[in-house]
Amino acid sequence: MTGGADGDLRIAVTGAGGRMGREVIEAAAARDDVEVALAVNRTPTDPVAGVDVADAARLDDLLADADPDVLVDFTGPESAVEYAETAAEAGVAVVTGTTGFDSGGTARLRAASEAVPLLRASNFARGVAALRRAVREAVVAVPDYDVELTETHHNGKRDAPSGTAKTLLDDVEGVREEARGDSAGGDGLDRRVHGREGDSPREPTEIGVHARRAGDVTGEHEVLLAGNRETLSLTHRAGDRGVFAEGALDAAAWLSGREPGRYEFDDVLGDGVSE
Ligand SMILES: NC(=O)C1=CN([C@@H]2O[C@H](COP(=O)(O)OP(=O)(O)OC[C@H]3O[C@@H](n4cnc5c(N)ncnc54)[C@H](OP(=O)(O)O)[C@@H]3O)[C@@H](O)[C@H]2O)C=CC1
Ligand SMILES: O=C(O)C1=N[C@H](C(=O)O)C[C@H](O)C1
């Protein structure tokens, strides 16, 4: 790990007043290898875990003053892109867990990653990394089974389906396309069906996607694979947001000092997902 004079990783946190921003600052406070050099928020926010929160509109000047190693972002898709571009101009690496990017936002993140290392992940839980592997393996084993994905989140979540759901769907489609010999690049036969209504039966190439929003559920993802005489259900449940914050800090520590480019959470975990 690279970092400040005493060897600590120095991070900047955007969205410091949000659910995840607070969690990241609290997780950093609980570690002795990470220092929060800067915390910003769009709207005025009281200190978080003793860390003052500055105005995000001044991010460029504040980055120049604080000179952090990595910017850790959990905000919204528009702000995440703007913050990543500001960090790239300042030569600061970026970890973003924000979800809901459109193709334009994704392209701008890619451009930012030409200047600095940028790691984007829809989910920083190690269990989700394991779930992805298990799902890919299961789909290889039963490529003709029906697949339905259900995700459940708290009632404050904006984007649907979740970023993790989209990642899992990409994984399923990639494996199924390969099994069928479809051309690579996501133009295969599979069709995502969001919810269901009407009177026609399910097509084999449908992948059902169901997004539930209720109460304070941190985050649950279930991939159901079903043949005619058996079902296989693979499920991850996040117990609290600390699991995401810890993963994001691990990613920041791993990313600091790397070459510019795009990175994923799997790069951090290597061959294993255990702590
Ligand atoms: N990858 C992962 O492991 C995880 C990813 N996430 C993702 O992280 C993101 C944030 O989630 P969460 O913390 O629950 O959300 P919150 O709504 O609790 O917080 C959002 C934060 O982002 C700021 N923000 C939102 N939109 C803008 C904008 N347009 N300009 C500037 N600031 C903005 C808010 O500022 P303000 O206070 O001013 O409103 C707030 O600080 C989501 O995309 C979510 O899906 C969440 C959990 C885990
Ligand atoms: O908004 C959330 O809360 C979460 N968002 C991420 C997603 O969209 O997949 C990760 C996690 O499920 C929590």
TrEMBL record:
UniProt key word Ubl conjugation: no
Q: Which GO terms describe its molecular function?
A: 4-hydroxy-tetrahydrodipicolinate reductase; NAD binding; NADP binding; oxidoreductase activity, acting on CH or CH2 groups, NAD or NADP as acceptor
Q: What pathway does the UniProt record associate with this protein?
A: Amino-acid biosynthesis; L-lysine biosynthesis via DAP pathway; (S)-tetrahydrodipicolinate from L-aspartate: step 4/4
Q: What is this enzyme's class at the first EC digit?
A: oxidoreductase
From which domain of life does this come? Archaea
Kindly list the places in or outside the cell where this protein is found, as annotated in its UniProt entry: Cytoplasm
Biased composition, class Basic and acidic residues, residue ranges:
188-205
Q: GO:BP terms for this protein?
A: diaminopimelate biosynthetic process; lysine biosynthetic process via diaminopimelate
Q: Which CDD domains match?
A: DHDPR_N
Q: Which parts of the sequence belong to the Dihydrodipicolinate reductase N-terminal domain?
A: 10-124
Please list the residues that bind NAD(+).
15-20, 97-99, 121-124
Q: Any idea which residues are catalytic in this one? A: 153, 157
Q: Which residues form the Dihydrodipicolinate reductase C-terminal domain?
A: 127-269
Binding of NADP(+), residues: 42
Q: Does the keyword Cytoplasm apply?
A: yes
Where is (S)-2,3,4,5-tetrahydrodipicolinate bound in this sequence?
Answer: 154, 163-164
User: EC number(s)?
Assistant: 1.17.1.8
Which reaction(s) does the protein catalyse, per the Swiss-Prot or TrEMBL entry?
(S)-2,3,4,5-tetrahydrodipicolinate + NAD(+) + H2O = (2S,4S)-4-hydroxy-2,3,4,5-tetrahydrodipicolinate + NADH + H(+); (S)-2,3,4,5-tetrahydrodipicolinate + NADP(+) + H2O = (2S,4S)-4-hydroxy-2,3,4,5-tetrahydrodipicolinate + NADPH + H(+)
Q: NCBIfam families of this UniProt entry? A: dapB
Q: How does it assemble?
A: Homotetramer.
What the protein does comes down to:
Catalyzes the conversion of 4-hydroxy-tetrahydrodipicolinate (HTPA) to tetrahydrodipicolinate.
**Family from the record:** Belongs to the DapB family.
Name of this protein: 4-hydroxy-tetrahydrodipicolinate reductase
Say which species the protein is native to.
Halorubrum cibi
